Amino acid sequence: MLDRARNALNRWVLDHVPTDWVDYVVSNTMTEFNRWANGFMWTYEHQWLLEQVREEAPGVKTFVFLPNQHWRGFTPGQHAPVHVTIDGQRHQRSYSLGRQPRGRVSITVKRQAQGKVSNWLHDEMKPGQCLTVEPPRGRFVHQGQSKLLLLCAGSGVTPGHAMVSHWMGLPSGERPDVQVMLQFHSQPDVIGAKDWRTWRQAGLRVTTCLSQAPSEPVPDGVSTRLDAAQLRQHVSDVAERDVYLCGPEGFMQQMINDLQALGVDARRIHTERFTAPTQCAAQAAAQAVPLSDLEGAEVVFSHLNTSIALTQADQGKTLLQLAQARGIALESGCQQGACGTCKLTLHEGAVSGNTLGSAVYLCTAYPASRAVVLGA
Questions:
Q1: CA dihedral of 170, 176, 179, 182, whole degrees rounded to 10
Q2: In the predicted structure, residue 308 carries a pLDDT above the cut 80
Q3: Which of 63, 114, 291, 322 is buried most deeply by CB count within 10 Å?
């Protein structure tokens, strides 16, 4: 009863009072008692209050939250680190963010067979509970290009859905030229099916590909796996578009190969990864073949207009460590090669370790040529 009353009060305050005023009042009345009585607002942390859980597809749920006054929104395509405590141990996972009505925010979580956090969220997270989160991160956001292709598969549809939701809320003359191709296992697995259907009726070009042949005709979709032939058929001007790609690792690698075969410049393929950190780190370690002679080699961060000269003492350091050792401020997150916060684009040279197309995950990648040019 007390929890329900407190949560109702929190919702009313954040729905009716500007967050700047809430922040001012809370920061000037911060006491241990207030923090104990209402840790959702009387806190220095970003807190989310769960309001709704929706079944999106088999094994997939969307969690809709009310953020506290510290939250300042996000750019569509970004993710946020979420903290949960399970059996006394604190765990962190990053989830792409969805924008919901009335200032709410959502994450869409697919249950993983061995996923400790995803299973906890599916089984234990109930409306009225709170999560501790960190501010949004990531560069998988629209960079202003006028012609775009979104390629998404499975739960990798979430950042693409957030981008499209934003664009469809703009006047038609302010939207980029967007085409969307989605891949799911079967029709019931389509995440956000109602939204995609609504947007398609409003004029958005959306093609849904199903890897499992359906028993009946697919509305506005094709009954085959997304591949180079589908790209060639449905996106005749694919080489003119910037591509935003997100999904399972195998899907993304295949799409990168197909896109490059169709003439798409690797630097115009923007990726977001959904792979467990341990898998990414293991992959990076197995593939890494760092440059053996670092003396005099150079790494250029073109977006910062700065460069660093390497010495043999830098041997064994990742690109992120090389930059940090010289005081270069680069964004970083999990530092295990999964979240993509530190990701940059390789413009010249070669790197080894954790890469995906031209995307370089600095925390688990190493220079592999005498000159390396990285940028946004």
A1: -60
A2: yes
A3: 63
Helix, coil or strand: residue 305:
coil
How open is the CA angle 28-29-34, to the nearest 5 degrees?
A: 150
Q: How many domains does the chain have?
A: 3
Token readout for 143 is 């960079």
DSSP letters spanning 182-211: EEESSGGG-TTHHHHHHHHHTT-EEEEEES
Per-residue pLDDT tens digits for 137-190: 888 999 999 999 999 999 899 999 999 999 999 998 999 999 999 999 888 899
Q: Which of 100, 133, 166 is the last residue before a domain boundary?
A: 133
Does a structural domain hold residue 210? yes
Amino acid (1-letter code) at residue 229: A
Please give the model's pTM, rounded to 2 decimal places: 0.84
Assign residue 165 the CATH number of its domain: 3.40.50.80
Amino acid 331 reads: E
